[in-house]
């Protein structure tokens, strides 16, 4: 029997991954920065950005903590991070590697990372181990099953095709070990690892350029896998990309669930 393929599906080595980070930042950085502000990030804080992807959140954290603070940005593939910026960059696997600088961080944040990671419990334990007593963990993850549609308004064949292809991408993610119901479990998961003052909220965008561009980059990124798995054919992928380009789909995403809790002490 062959072992399951749990490699990260949306590989950072591809140019489309960089495009995705641009549009994820456009869609979600305002939400993330709002939570980080409310948790009290300020001058002198030590922050760890896990699975950072692109540079926008590490840059925002570095601005918030100033020269007396410290921001560590890690990823299994940190290719899109700037090693010369005001944050430290480290190649780090949140499942396989131990917490860097354990017990020292005021804030540990991961957005859209754990949903892709097969051993989510281990990843959470590593992040908690990095917190100082009283430090905050902020986890943000999609709950794709909560709102699985690409088009809420399934008014014609283009919208139906978009929803069919979204199901196909979700199927690929599931085969790679993603948990598409993970977002809703976050408050419980944070309490289970011993955090206190746990709260959560959700957000999802409907329509607009950033949703369109993110969808086009994602479809191009996984196109070969969709074809190889027999989950889509060239004609429908081309038609979908043309419909996105025409701006007629009002695409949406799964809700982003943001949950936070504090290490006691
Ligand atoms: C969907 S992207 C999200 C990027 C960024 N956090 C954001 O919200 O824009 C997921 C990121 O997690 C990283 N990643 C996946 N598995 C990982 C692991 N085991 N350890 C660390 N990073 C991982 C990927 O390389 C990718 O950069």
Please tell me about this protein's structure.
The protein has 265 residues and is α/β, with parallel strands linked by helices. The chain has one domain: Vaccinia Virus protein VP39 (Rossmann fold). Helix content is 40%, strand content 18%. It contains 7 helices and 7 strands. The chain has helices spanning 15-38, 56-65, 120-130, 157-175, 182-192, 209-228, 234-245, and strands spanning 46-50, 70-75, 88-91, 105-111, 131-142, 196-203, 256-262. Helix 1 packs parallel to helix 2 (56-65) and helix 6 runs antiparallel to helix 7. The longest helix is centred in the first third of the chain and has 24 residues, at 15-38. The protein is globular, with a radius of gyration of 18 Å. The model has no long low-confidence stretch (mean pLDDT 94). S-adenosylmethionine (SAM) is lined by residues 8, 10, 12, 21, 24, 51-54, 75-77, 93-95, 111-113, 116-117. S-adenosylmethionine (SAM) binds at residues 8, 10, 12, 21, 24, 51-54, 75-77, 93-95, 111-113, 116-117.
Number of helices: 7
CATH architecture: 3-Layer(aba) Sandwich
Number of strands: 7
Please state roughly what percent of the residues sit in beta strands, choosing from under 5%, 5-15%, 15-25%, 25-35%, 35-45% or over 45%. Answer: 15-25%
Structural class: alpha/beta
Largest sheet: 7 strands, mixed
Question: How do the helices and strands follow one another from N- to C-terminus?
Answer: HEHEEEHEHHEHHE
Mean pLDDT: 94
In spatial order, strands of the major sheet run: 3-2-1-4-5-7-6
CATH hierarchy class name: Alpha Beta
Relative helix content: 40-55%
Q: What are the segments in which pLDDT stays under 50 over at least 5 consecutive residues?
A: none
N- and C-termini, Cα separation? 47 Å
InterPro entries: SAM-dependent_MTases_sf (IPR029063)
GO molecular function: methyltransferase activity
Organism: Asanoa ferruginea
Protein name: Methyltransferase family protein
